């Protein structure tokens, strides 16, 4: 079927080298900015706090007025509206420090005596008093370009009075499902013999979003080279095109020759299992991944090629969620092939899921994760510790 | 301030024991069902495939007709519209098997000779032919109650012709921000001296969603016990109430006595650092967490108490994303306290982030993760390997 099969690792590397992170930006409201990546450094437009602030309950004082105070030699301060010259002002945490104050005497060190306070400790300047800009100074860089926003980051930006952030656009992922025998998912249409529901494109769409992309799935395209070409041409503004073939029709592989005609077919047939019929290429500046038709093969190709590509374009790390587990059973891999081996996972034990083929997603239903067996390794032995990547 | 501080581990355990997973369900469209948890077993309403299907390109045959065929002793079959009685039908992968066929002879083993085919191999019944229901049988349980839906699962359900799933409702998390000195986040209102923007409630809202809940944030409530009581009473239909105090006003802790009055104040003051002023309780069947005012303390309380509670209620695992890293520096923890220590993370090295207090989220801006130092451990040594939980 394929004259020469390409190495998975080298194919991925070649594809990644031809692409780059998305460089367009957009302003988004912070309330919806979770997971978005900053396009530029953010500097604070304000001082935080914006005023000298009491950091303790007690009495705002001029520190110098408490010099030498101790339980045996207390100093008496007069309660007033401003501090300094022997005066002090009662304050609670968070309140603005009154005029003349440069420190707060904790209430534990200050006994009220009518209109006076008996100070039994000395305080140094700025003790228990947060200065203007102490938390964040006006103009200070709070986040660098490339920072991925998490809830505390959004809270910090909101505390600076900001309501928007300039972030990288999500990479646009166009998904083109093809196949005469397919019926759109979720349609009420009944299946005729020979028909199946389109689900690889659906899977690609869901994953594109999870991995940080903005998916755009086009309506099902018939197995007609001209229609497929047209769909591709209409989506060359995307950052990535995923073409998915029919779920079961093996031979009518229209997409790879079209890739070759419209641009560059870099690879057709890769040493991954499942997923061998995967094709990769470039049309103009847009990378194209042709997913194999069998669902598990499509899943494998999505994880091996689309995931690193989309996360890179989205300025994210491709770091999967990994659990170290002991293998209960053997993983048989195909030497020279990158193997996407599904495993069940329970109480730290990974059980290989035996499956006859790549056709059936029900084998994935029982899989919690996958073990990637590299090309140069021949499977994994029973009892070995393996890194299980959780299926997202 | 607190007569007796409660153990973090025991407080959390006591709270979890009083609560349970949400048991209400709703039907959701599969296109938006990612991450939702099935309320019931799902059985297949159809056979998949719905017809006997060719699993190879070649000729559909009655297996018995190929008996004994080999390159040296080929068998000749007549090309026709139905199989059997010495006849065969050309088929391609995925096509319905024609009448009379119970196997497919691969095209590699079948040489066309005019109106006949020279079969050079024998096939057994059901060889290269997927039977009705072979992938998924009508009535077969495809997923069990409690399964969290991932893209391949949604694709599988869609392939069965389903478009909805009955899933557990997300736990309702009511967030009640309180504080006279606070101004809502994202408002255009300028801050007066002494004012700050409300961000702990915002952080709670964002995390509630990430952890699988359905947040409902009520407008800012003034520091008036009656208004706070009213807000709580109006939200007792929630599965969890988070009350966040002012970001900096330490002493006006209205919520814990209200908890005591309206229901049960289980804990006020916990041995976690930061986050000591956290309070926990129950009002009727609704657990209530009062977050401390300082932002990092609120973050710590969210991770230590709200995260396990919300994920449990949402039928999810609380498993954080963990990276094993070598400590570059020492983590000083408070003996007897569960310590939420922020660390930077680069190239497998975790650097403790020194910070004077719990007030400043900008210290979290530089933190990639946190190390939980248990109560019975006194810090972590320079060079130790530690488990870093990534900040979501």
Detailed description of the structure:
Two copies of one chain form a homodimer. Chain A has four domains: 8-23 and 170-313, 3-Layer(aba) Sandwich (Molybdenum Cofactor Biosythetic Enzyme, Chain A), CATH 3.40.980; 25-47 and 136-168, Alpha-Beta Complex (Molybdopterin biosynthesis moea protein, domain 2), CATH 3.90.105.10; 53-130, Beta Complex (Molybdopterin biosynthesis moeA protein, domain 3), CATH 2.170.190.11; 322-390, MoeA, C-terminal, domain IV (Beta-clip, Beta Barrel), CATH 2.40.340. Helix content of chain A is 18%, strand content 29%. The first copy, chain A, has helices at residues 8-18, 151-159, 200-210, 225-233, 255-262, 295-313, 362-365; strands spanning 25-29, 42-43, 53-54, 58-61, 75-79, 87-91, 103-106, 110-113, 116-119, 129-130, 141-143, 164-168, 172-177, 182-183, 196-197, 214-217, 240-244, 264-268, 272-273, 279-283, 286-291, 322-327, 338-346, 349-352, 369-373, 385-390. In chain A, strands 7-4-6-5-9-8 form a six-stranded mixed sheet, with no helix packed on it. Chain A starts with 7 loop residues before the first helix and ends with a strand. The mean pLDDT of chain A is 93. At the A-B interface, helix 2, strand 15, helix 3, helix 6 and helix 7 of A face helix 2, strand 15, helix 3, helix 6 and helix 7 of B.
């Amino acid at each position: 079927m394929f004259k020469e099969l390409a190495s998975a690792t080298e194919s991925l590397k070649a594809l990644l080298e031809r692409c780059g992170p998305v460089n367009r930006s957009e302003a988004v409201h912070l309330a919806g900015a979770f997971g978005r990546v900053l396009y530029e450094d953010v500097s604070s437009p304000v001082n935080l706090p914006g005023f000298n602030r009491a950091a303790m309950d007690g009495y705002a004082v001029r520190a110098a007025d408490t010099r030498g105070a101790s339980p045996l030699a207390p100093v008496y301060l007069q309660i007033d509206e401003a501090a300094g010259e022997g005066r002090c002002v009662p304050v609670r945490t968070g309140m603005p420090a009154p005029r003349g104050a440069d420190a707060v005497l904790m209430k534990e060190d200050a006994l009220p005596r009518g209109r006076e306070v008996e100070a039994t400790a000395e305080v140094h300047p700025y003790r228990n008093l947060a200065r203007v800009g102490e938390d964040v100074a006006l103009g200070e860089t709070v986040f660098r370009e490339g920072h991925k926003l998490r809830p505390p980051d959004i809270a910090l930006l909101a505390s600076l009075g900001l309501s928007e952030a300039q972030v990288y656009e999500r990479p646009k992922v166009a998904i083109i499902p093809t196949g005469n025998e397919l019926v759109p998912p979720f349609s009420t249409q009944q299946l005729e013999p020979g028909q199946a529901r389109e689900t690889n494109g659906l899977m690609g769409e869901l994953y594109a979003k999870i991995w940080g992309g903005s998916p755009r799935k086009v309506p099902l395209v018939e197995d007609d080279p001209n229609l497929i070409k047209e769909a591709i041409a209409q989506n060359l503004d995307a950052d990535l095109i995923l073409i998915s073939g029919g779920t079961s029709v093996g031979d009518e592989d229209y997409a790879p020759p079209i890739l070759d005609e419209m641009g560059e077919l870099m690879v057709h047939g890769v040493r991954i299992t499942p997923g061998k019929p995967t094709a990769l290429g470039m049309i103009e500046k847009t990378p194209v991944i042709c997913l194999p038709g069998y669902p598990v093969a499509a899943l494998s190709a999505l994880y091996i090629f689309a995931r690193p590509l989309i996360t890179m374009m989205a300025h994210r790390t491709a770091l999967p969620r990994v659990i170290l587990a002991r293998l209960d059973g053997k993983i048989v891999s195909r030497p020279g092939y990158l193997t996407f081996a599904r495993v069940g996972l329970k109480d730290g034990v990974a059980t290989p899921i035996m499956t006859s083929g790549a056709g059936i997603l029900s084998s994935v239903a029982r899989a919690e994760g996958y073990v990637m067996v590299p090309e140069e390794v021949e499977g994994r032995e029973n009892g070995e510790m393996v890194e299980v990547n959780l299926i997202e």
